């Protein structure tokens, strides 16, 4: 008998929400009567593509996370772990946790997701997971409807061809062995910085294609106060 490798969702909620400027990390703020984190966990709980969830949570809020998960009956939640100083450090914490699990090998699928993207849909989660059957790395992405420019010292120095540009979202999915190797290589690079995990693969495993699947404008990242209003409006629409 053969078994499919498991699919693990790593929900990153290790940030403090500086740009939100609230007393609590933004993942604990309410939108339409439920914490941002609860909306996100519910999306992964409901996805048939996901077997288990690991939550990377900001220090001092682990108990609150378990309470939210219990309230929402998030039975797939396997662990709440501590993160790191940067988003990349929190990804590494999730990767290490996944690798420490019995019967989880390099072929497991790891879907790394911002807790702040609370309106992620089942379709996007399923598409990213399915893309990993044909590639070792994949992300949700949407076209840019704005012209994007490169700015230096307050002056535009380039206007890249918009048709070749996309805005990446999460989840970003990887075969576990690949993303672990890419982050290991990053750890040995003193100049390493990254704002997402696909760029870690692109930089340190450049021979591995990173596929894109359609994201959605709805899959916004709650970042500042206006995003809370927007997310609530989208939920009620
Ligand atoms: N050290 C960090 C930083 C960020 N994140 C998570 O990564 C996602 C995207 O990060 P961001 O939107 O930047 O969240 P914050 O870091 O909390 O926000 P800010 O940058 O405004 O402080 C969020 O769900 C956040 O909780 C994380 O797990 N660990
Ligand atoms: C991972 C990400 O959501 C992709 O768009 C984004 O890079 C996170 O950026 P942040 O500054 O950590 O919110």
TrEMBL record:
A Pfam family matched in the record:
IspD
Annotated pathway: Isoprenoid biosynthesis; isopentenyl diphosphate biosynthesis via DXP pathway; isopentenyl diphosphate from 1-deoxy-D-xylulose 5-phosphate: step 2/6
Which residues does the annotation list for site: Transition state stabilizer?
Answer: 19, 26
Question: By its UniProt entry, which PANTHER family does this protein fall under?
Answer: 2-C-METHYL-D-ERYTHRITOL 4-PHOSPHATE CYTIDYLYLTRANSFERASE, CHLOROPLASTIC
Briefly, what is this protein's role? Catalyzes the formation of 4-diphosphocytidyl-2-C-methyl-D-erythritol from CTP and 2-C-methyl-D-erythritol 4-phosphate (MEP).
InterPro entries (alphabetical): IspD, IspD/TarI, IspD/TarI_cytidylyltransf_bact, Nucleotide-diphossugar_trans
Q: Supply the alphabetized keyword list.
A: Isoprene biosynthesis, Nucleotidyltransferase, Transferase
Lipid metabolism is among the record's keywords: no
The catalytic activity, as recorded, is: 2-C-methyl-D-erythritol 4-phosphate + CTP + H(+) = 4-CDP-2-C-methyl-D-erythritol + diphosphate
Q: Does the keyword NAD apply?
A: no
Alphabetically, the GO molecular function entries are: nucleotidyltransferase activity
Q: What is this protein called?
A: 2-C-methyl-D-erythritol 4-phosphate cytidylyltransferase
Major enzyme class: transferase
Site keyed Positions MEP for the nucleophilic attack: positions:
162, 221
The record's family statement is: Belongs to the IspD/TarI cytidylyltransferase family. IspD subfamily.
HAMAP family named in the record: IspD
Q: What is its EC number?
A: 2.7.7.60
């Amino acid at each position: 008998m053969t078994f499919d490798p498991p699919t693990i969702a790593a929900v990153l909620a290790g940030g403090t929400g500086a740009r939100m400027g609230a007393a609590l990390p933004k993942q604990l703020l309410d939108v339409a009567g439920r914490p941002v984190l609860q909306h996100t966990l519910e999306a992964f709980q409901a996805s048939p593509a996901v077997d288990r969830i690991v939550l990377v949570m900001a220090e001092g809020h682990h108990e609150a996370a378990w309470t939210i998960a219990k309230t929402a009956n998030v039975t797939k939640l396997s662990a709440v772990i501590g993160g790191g100083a940067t988003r990349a450090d929190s990804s590494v914490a999730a990767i290490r946790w996944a690798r420490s699990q019995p019967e989880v090998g390099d072929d497991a699928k790891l879907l790394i997701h911002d807790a702040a993207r609370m309106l992620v849909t089942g379709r996007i989660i399923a598409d990213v997971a399915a893309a990993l059957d044909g590639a070792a790395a994949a992300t949700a992405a949407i076209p840019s409807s704005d012209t994007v420019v490169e700015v230096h010292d307050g002056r535009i120095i380039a206007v890249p061809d918009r048709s070749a540009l996309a805005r990446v979202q999460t989840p970003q999915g990887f075969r576990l062995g690949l993303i672990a190797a890419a982050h290991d290589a990053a750890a040995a690079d003193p100049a390493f910085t990254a704002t997402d995990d696909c760029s870690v693969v692109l930089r340190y495993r450049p021979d591995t294609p990173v596929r894109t699947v359609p994201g959605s404008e709805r899959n916004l990242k709650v970042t500042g106060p206006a995003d809370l209003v927007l997310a609530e409006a989208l939920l009620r629409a």
